[in-house]
Amino acid sequence: MTLRLTRRFVHQLFIRRYASKDSSITTTTTTDSNKDLTTEKSSEISTVKRAFTLINPKTVHEIKRIDDTPIKNEMDLIRHRLTENRVKNIPIETDVLIIGGAIMGSSIAYFLKQRSPDMKVTVLERDWNYTTSSTVLSAGGLRQQFALEENIQMSVYGAEFLKHIRDHLSILDEDPVPISFQHNGYLLCGSEQSVKLFEENHKTQTSLGAKSKLLTASMLKEKFPWLNTDGIAIGCYGIQNEGWLDPWALLNAFRQKALSLGVLYLNAELVGFDKSKRVWADGTIENQLDKALILSADDNRIYPMDSSFFINAAGPWAGEVAKMAGIGVAGEYPVALPVEPR
């Protein structure tokens, strides 16, 4: 099948940086893995080793060639990559393709395979060591003090899940990596104008199973003598199921369990979608995602992959993934996903 690629897809490609064994290339020593390893132009690099990519808004339109094939423009490069021999670890199809393999992607993969063992689940993760993942850069906090019911319910469920983590994430009856959960409640404070809101939120939280306690200014001063209560009229303190944990350990526990259930992890990234038009019975024409275009870190080539469902778990880069799918660009879905890296 000939893939029809749009100009927009080409513009979504990320920068690729490459290292070479060519002795004519001068290398520099640096501790920053995101800096260029060569001082020569990409067209002079003859042998490819590995690639690591990050979105760079200033140079997002650049594409560097990685082989000796005569290429005149970006479209020639894409077509050439799509016609190369497929590497062994890139499947041609999957039932569910999860874009992003950190805590969200890995946990989604785990729950899907737990509920449907025969489902083919594939996870794409471009940062194989999670060096730039929001998961491992976070404090790993867990709290239940929210105003939205769905957030409260997810946190209550999360606390119960962690209490029984051995039942969920053990492999061959071995304990998962200790996540080192530290119980310590969150304290939220408000002024006189916030009292009614705090009371309403507390009522909602307790009705859904969250354990928190409202404190007046005098009660706050007694419980936390170091706290300056000037201007504070009310506080809410989590008395159970709040605290922090080791996010790296929890990520590994989810990932290893997902792998044991048969989830396929690929060191690759999404660079676009091939789309097709579907005509409904009423004559409505709708653009649908046909194939995901996957850039493999093993050989720096792009491969198409069929999938029934695509799940965007790309964290700060979820907005970029949404644009590749046509969300936030002119057309059917003009409203962008308001997520971007800081």
Automatic annotation (TrEMBL):
Gene3D superfamilies according to UniProt: FAD/NAD(P)-binding domain
The keyword Oxidoreductase is annotated on this UniProt entry: yes
Highest taxon of source: Eukaryota
TM stretches of this protein: none
Name of the protein this chain belongs to: FAD-dependent oxidoreductase domain-containing protein 1
Organism of provenance: Adineta steineri
Keywords: Oxidoreductase
Biological process according to GO: mitochondrial respiratory chain complex I assembly
